[in-house]
Amino acid sequence: MRFQAISWERLAGAVADRVDRTDPGDGSDWLKVGVDGAPATPGGEFAERVAEVLRLRGRSVLVVATGGFLRPASLRFEHGKRDPDAYYGDWFDTGALWREVFGPLEPGGSGRVLPDLWNPVTDRATRSSAVPLAPGGVLLVHGPFLLGHWFPFDVKLHLRLSPGALARRTEEPWTLPAFARYEEEVGPADAADAVVRVDDPRRPAWTGFVD
After folding, report:
1. Is residue 211 part of a domain?
2. Which of 36, 82, 90, 109 is most buried when burial is the number of CB atoms within 10 A of its CB?
3. How confident is the model at residue 133 (pLDDT cuts 50, 70, 90)?
């Protein structure tokens, strides 16, 4: 896999260009973009960068973090607070993401997306209201393990850290086996349309898009 150095600004513009050239694969009125990456990567910041570029181009954009769709603590911590297998498979409410985020953007859908569902600090529902996304709009979802759930992304990006960089920058080392499992079972670099190497967050490099 060959990488080319690029600035975050140029990278956001390149992703926005790809979005502008892409039609929704499911025939709906909305485009879905996934920014996959461990919490140690700047996935949320990059998603917001891309969203800003798209908004300047006149696109309606909604950014959703999977961190707002955690399951209640009673389910996340059923096997303890530091179980990597539970973190990998049980922490994120993928059913709610399908129902509240992707479902409304299916063909004939309402276009009203729930931006978040659960507050992990209070361990209560956020009670947020659904946000309308105009036809022709773009949904940007960011978070870990995104490419292993068959979410209907039209553009898929994987922010990659080498094993050493991931170990150094991960605040919860007990989660590292979950990312090793993700690499083995899903192969996110192969599943993505483009891979961005972020070992040094000041100097990203990427593969470009695979056509």
Report:
1. no
2. 36
3. very high
Tokens of 181: 């499992």
How would you label 106-115 residue by residue, b for 16+ Cβ within 10 Å and e otherwise?
beebebebbb
CA 35 to chain centre: 4
Asked whether residue 131 is assigned to any structural domain, the reply reads: yes
Q: CATH number, domain at 194?
A: 3.40.50.300
> Which pLDDT does position 180 carry in this prediction?
98
User: Mean pLDDT, to the nearest integer, of 78-85?
Assistant: 94
Which residues span the domain enclosing 65? 4-206
Q: Locate tokens 């975050």: which residue?
A: 8
Other Cβ atoms closer than 10 A to 67: 16
Task: State which H helix or E strand residue 163 sits in.
Answer: helix 163-169
Please count the structural domains in the chain.
Answer: 1
